[in-house]
């Protein structure tokens, strides 16, 4: 009996955290029990397109709605933090660490900024903060899915005129704090001429060519991300003349298969 007691493994302090860090299984639509009326409509297949929800202005309160309607959604963590290094030369990392001084000692917290999108007109960002890295990452990805928006694309460059949705249709500006971000339409083949964080956000939205200018303290990446998202949101709020939609080839949200076939037929004819 004494030997069996010795063989028994005593519970350790980090066991619970290790279980939490395991990968979660993929979402099963049949097992999901929605709590909102919007979620019930999605499960009953009354709503099969995410753009119907975004156009109607309904708030998405469950991430499962996005997972079911957009199965090809990509997620990525943006580099908002910096590791310790000599003379402030630490390498960039996805977690921004802050700590609070108390009598008991230092209480660290970790913040992350997640980016989601389908590279076809839909993009979203989310902020998450927690005492540990894994919950912070989960919070940010959840908030990014709930903050999903759609953008307009077209060919707004005077140097191009191909009427394909490879860039933005017109110049837009976004501001947060001291950071100001200007986005300009670029001709086909230019690429994403912007800061690395802006490149990731704009690229995840499905834009292939863009020029940009940024002012202010762009080293504060959180303000830079918010300013870039504010610029992309203004693409949908700006009023456009109906004749300009055909001239520039403006498309809202994702490109459907039927629209691709029609465009190919036009160019062939």
Provide structural commentary:
- With 269 residues, this protein is of the alpha+beta class.
- Among the domains are: 15-71, no CATH class; 152-268, Ribosomal Protein S5, domain 2 (2-Layer Sandwich), CATH 3.30.230.
- It contains ten helices and 13 strands.
- The strands form four sheets. Strands 1, 4, 5, 6 and 7 form a five-stranded antiparallel β-sheet that branches.
- Residues 4-8 and 10-23 have low confidence and may be disordered.
Give a short overview.
The chain has 10 helices and 13 strands.
The SSE string, one letter per element, is HHHHHEEEEEEHEEEEEHEHHEH
In the CATH hierarchy, the third-tier topology of the domain at 152-268 is known as Ribosomal Protein S5, domain 2
Number of helices: 10
Question: What is the terminal-to-terminal distance?
Answer: 87 Å
Unreliable residue stretches: 4-8, 10-23
Number of strands: 13
CATH class division of the domain at 152-268 = Alpha Beta
Shape: flat
Structural class of the helix and strand makeup?
alpha+beta
Q: What's the architecture of the domain at 152-268, going by CATH? A: 2-Layer Sandwich
Assess the beta-strand content as a share of residues: 15-25%
Characterize the biggest β-sheet: 5 strands, antiparallel
Rg estimate, integer Å? 23 Å
Give the fraction of residues assigned to helices.
25-40%
Averaged pLDDT: 85
């Amino acid at each position: 009996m004494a030997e069996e007691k010795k063989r028994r493994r005593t519970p350790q302090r980090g066991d619970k955290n290790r279980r939490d860090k395991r990968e979660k299984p993929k979402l099963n639509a049949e097992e999901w029990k929605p709590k909102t009326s919007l979620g019930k409509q999605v499960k009953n297949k009354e709503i099969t397109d995410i753009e119907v929800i975004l156009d109607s202005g309904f708030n998405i309160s469950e991430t499962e709605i996005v997972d079911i309607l957009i199965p090809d959604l990509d997620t990525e963590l943006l580099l908002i933090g910096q590791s310790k290094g000599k003379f402030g030369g630490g390498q960039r990392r996805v977690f921004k660490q802050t700590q609070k001084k108390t009598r008991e000692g230092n209480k660290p917290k970790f913040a992350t900024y997640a980016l989601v999108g389908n590279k076809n007109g839909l993009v979203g960002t989310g902020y998450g903060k927690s005492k540990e890295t894994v919950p912070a990452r989960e919070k940010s990805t959840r908030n990014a899915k709930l903050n999903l928006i759609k953008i307009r694309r077209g060919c707004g460059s005077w140097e191009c005129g191909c009427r394909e949705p490879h860039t933005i249709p017109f110049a837009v500006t976004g501001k947060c704090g001291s950071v100001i971000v200007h986005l300009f339409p670029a001709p086909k083949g230019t690429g994403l001429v912007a800061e690395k964080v802006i490149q990731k956000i704009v690229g995840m939205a499905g834009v292939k060519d863009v020029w940009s200018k940024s002012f202010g303290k762009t080293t504060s990446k959180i303000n830079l991300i918010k300013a870039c998202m504010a610029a992309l949101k203004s693409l949908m709020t700006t009023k456009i003349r109906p004749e300009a939609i055909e001239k520039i080839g403006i498309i809202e949200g994702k490109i459907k298969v039927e629209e691709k076939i029609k465009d190919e037929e036009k160019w062939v004819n």
